[in-house]
Design goal:
single chain; alpha/beta; seven-stranded parallel sheet; 20 helices; globular; binds adenosine-5'-diphosphate; binds zinc ion; EC 5.6.2.4; 3'-5' DNA helicase activity; metal-binding
Length: 733
């Protein structure tokens, strides 16, 4: 729609409107700088005593005293922001009720945006002949010839040729390699979509064909690519990426977890001969700057990244893949509250691009959109090769003979024992970080809570501290009960992964154990090393949290034991069933990917629970239909609309007061046939010392919820102590 739109130019001195990422929610008037500027240009503008970054958003409004309008400063060295991205920010802001300036902040996270262009040295093939040709030297020359005269940094070239940098330097001294200064932000190595991919199975070919046809149409569409773990979804969507690159357009692959990127990078390298650009919090400033610029100039064909990559200034984005689309981490829970999956659909629709939502266990929203025909749906039915889905069984914990403070049942122990004998791996899964979720005093029963939040402190034995999982506050384990003063009676209650690891070490003293839990790895690199170690078979038993449920390939893993399958079913969250179903199926899918068949055992106290039964029977469509019917009857998403209004203050009463006032003035919500519930404590009721109160707006599906909420809350003047944020389509309800 906005693809390839014309760009307007403003003459020097013309009145222009500039949007800044500063917290002023309006476009300000300036005069176009010396030499004029393009619509969308990044400029520096005076704001009070400061100079700030801004984007030329349109012609000026002219509602200031013309004599007082100031001139914009210099135009920055970056491609103007395209209309497609500007419209995307406006629409995404309108949908999530986020101020436009805050949306712009998401799109200007480019380090060094206002720096002048800088140079760096690259090395390419020279005309000289080396005096003496060694093996190492020959490899350097061969690499350069291979890449048809492209230049590389010293480190890149040395790495590619497998030599030390002194070898390259030596060649440079003799003129066989040439040292050249080029702009620092060099294009990424070209990806070749026509390198041969893996031969696909019949199912995979059909799915890849459908996706390729979509890409070639040059129109917007969203497709759900559903297939069990290991069915080859990644292989298939890489074919869509290939087609997109052939069309000369860019592609973006979103992953829910940075830890998954390195495996994905390798697969891209195998398929296309080079690595894509990366965009997530683990990338260095220099690389981020390069990625941001190259995405804008077309020097990056494929980006793999976290949800924030959605706001990059693509030159012509033709495909967005959202892998593991059901993953809750796609929802940004602070600042602008957006769901990257939904925003991907919006952005694609504005640029005639395609979206692929890949998952083994799609969200109910996506499943329903496919049922309704809004999204296309492709199914990969079988696992690749001889790998079959694991057999799934429940272990009825009511009949297992276990002492107190032990969680690995005799039945599970015996299966793990068999795997140890056979030299195969087992995974013990518990979705709970730390050692014990509760620390209490055996004298008075008091539990240790966080001083700032409404949460219990969780013991982390490796860190030797109690940690609040909500705000990150830590404190030492108390010897003495803070409530009653008795010493030596503090006890850990319940299991976390660290405690399961301790138990596993006791039960299987000769096994090699590894714990995978996000808090135990200081860096993405350490985590990657651990994952590689496991994949290479140097581990017998993996003890892990949610982190392992996401897409890693452990070929020797044949047994998954879920320590507490009931964990997610407690509590009142309406999504509990959906989440448990997804998580249990994901984690079970880890077993038996290669030749060895897998087994998944779910320890449960309620084997007759409908969700547990659905998981075991594998009747997915039946499960979704039942869930959907329940939601529809209750008018809940995706069959009705929900929005949360979160009010926070240090003083709980002040937050409740405002909540009550709002609830009483609910006219605009009732006008659209909606209802206001609350105020009630928010799902996370206290964070960092602030009390949070939530109002829940429920409205019929087609209702104009955003504009009603805007009318409803706009008369409110917030005192400095109160904060209010709107959460459209909240994750928990
Ligand atoms: P998913 O994304 O559905 O979990 P993957 O694409 O990761 O599945 O495939 C699972 C494993 O099977 C990977 O190791 C992949 O390389 C392999 N695989 C899938 N399809 C093929 C194929 N057609 N030829 C060779 N290997 C394949
Ligand atoms: Zn806390």
């Amino acid at each position: 729609m906005y693809r390839g739109a014309m760009v307007e130019h403003f003459e020097e001195g013309a009145l222009i409107g500039v949007l800044t990422p500063e917290p002023i929610d309006r476009v300000l008037d300036y005069r176009a700088p010396e030499g004029g500027c393009w619509l969308g240009a990044f400029v520096e503008v005076p704001l009070g005593p400061r100079r700030v970054l801004g984007v030329v958003w349109g012609p000026g409004q002219g509602d200031y005293d013309a004599a007082k309008v100031r001139a914009a400063g210099r135009v920055l060295d970056a491609a103007p922001m395209r209309e497609e991205l500007r419209v995307f920010l406006e629409k995404a802001g309108a949908y999530t009720l986020t101020p436009l300036s805050q949306m712009l902040r998401l799109a200007t996270r480019a380090p060094g945006l206002s720096d002048p262009p800088s140079m760096r040295k690259i090395y390419r093939l020279g005309q000289g002949t080396p005096a003496r040709m060694t093996d190492a030297r020959a490899r350097v020359i061969a690499t350069l010839v291979d890449y048809g005269g492209l230049g590389f940094t010293l480190k890149e070239l040395a790495d590619m040729a497998g030599v030390t940098s002194s070898v390259v330097k030596g060649l440079a001294a003799q003129g066989a390699v040439e040292e050249v200064d080029t702009p620092r932000d060099a294009p990424f190595l070209p990806l070749d979509p026509d390198l041969p991919g893996k031969p696909l199975t019949e199912d995979q070919v059909a799915a890849a064909d459908a996706l390729r046809t979509g890409i070639r149409s040059g129109r917007y569409a969203t497709t759900l690519l559903k297939g069990v773990t290991g069915s080859g979804k990644t292989e298939v969507y890489l074919e869509a990426v290939a087609e997109c690159l052939r069309q000369g357009r860019q592609a973006l692959v979103l992953l829910p977890e940075i830890a998954l990127t390195s495996e994905f990078l390798t697969r891209v390298q195998d398929r296309f001969g080079a690595k894509p650009a990366e965009w997530h919090s683990g990338v260095t400033m220099t690389e981020r700057r390069r990625a941001w610029r190259m995405v804008g100039q077309g020097g990056a064909q494929l980006v793999v990244g976290a949800r924030s990559a959605l706001f990059l200034p693509f030159r012509d984005l033709g495909l967005i893949v959202v892998d593991e689309e059901h993953d809750t981490s796609y929802k940004q829970e602070e600042g602008a509250l957006y769901n990257a999956r939904d925003m991907a659909v919006l952005r694609a629709s504005l640029n005639d691009a395609q979206v692929v939502l890949a998952s083994a266990t799609p969200s109910l929203e996506t499943w329903a959109n496919a049922q309704a025909g809004k999204y296309a749906r492709l199914d990969l039915k079988a696992r690749f090769g001889t790998a079959v889905l694991p057999d799934m069984r429940a272990i009825d914990m009511r009949t297992e003979d276990l002492p107190g403070q032990a969680w690995i049942s005799p039945s599970l122990q015996s299966e793990v024992g068999k795997r140890l004998q056979a030299g195969e791996q087992s995974l013990l899964f518990l979705n709970r970080r730390g050692y014990a979720p509760v620390t209490l005093c055996r004298a008075c029963g008091a539990q240790v809570g966080c001083d700032h939040c409404d949460a219990r402190m969780v013991e982390h034995r490796f860190q030797k501290r109690l940690v609040c999982h909500q705000c990150g506050e830590t404190k030492p384990l108390p010897e003495t009960c803070p409530a009653c003063g008795v010493t030596g009676k503090m006890a850990a209650v319940g299991p976390g992964v660290e405690r399961i690891a301790e138990e596993a070490a006791r039960v299987f003293p000769d096994a090699r154990l590894a714990i995978l839990s996000s808090d135990l790895f200081g860096s993405a690199r350490a985590l990657k090393a651990q994952i590689e170690e496991i994949a290479s078979g140097e581990t017998d038993i993996i003890i892990g949290t949610q982190l392992v449920a996401k897409g890693h390939n452990f070929p020797r893993l044949t047994l998954v034991g879920v320590i507490d399958a009931d964990l997610g079913l407690q509590g009142s969250d309406l999504r509990a069933a959906e989440r448990t179903f997804q998580l249990m199926r994901q984690v079970s899918g880890r077993a038996g990917r290669a030749e060895a068949p897998g087994l998944a055992l779910l320890q449960t106290f309620q084997p007759e629970h409908p969700v547990i039964r659905a998981i075991l029977s594998g009747d997915e469509e039946g499960f979704w239909r039942a869930e959907a019917a329940e939601r529809e009857a209750a008018g809940m998403p995706p069959y009705g609309r929900l929005a949360g209004i979160i009010i926070s203050a240090e003083d709980a009463a002040a937050a409740f007061d405002l909540g009550t006032r709002l609830a009483r003035s609910d006219g605009p919500i009732r006008d659209i046939g909606g209802m206001v519930y609350g105020p009630a404590p928010a799902p996370i009721a206290r964070v960092r010392g602030r009390h949070r109160v939530r109002l829940l707006v429920k409205a019929p599906k087609g209702a104009a919820v955003q504009s009603a909420i805007a009318r409803w809350i706009s008369p409110i003047r917030l005192s400095a102590k109160l904060r209010l944020s709107v959460d459209i389509d909240p994750q928990s309800f």
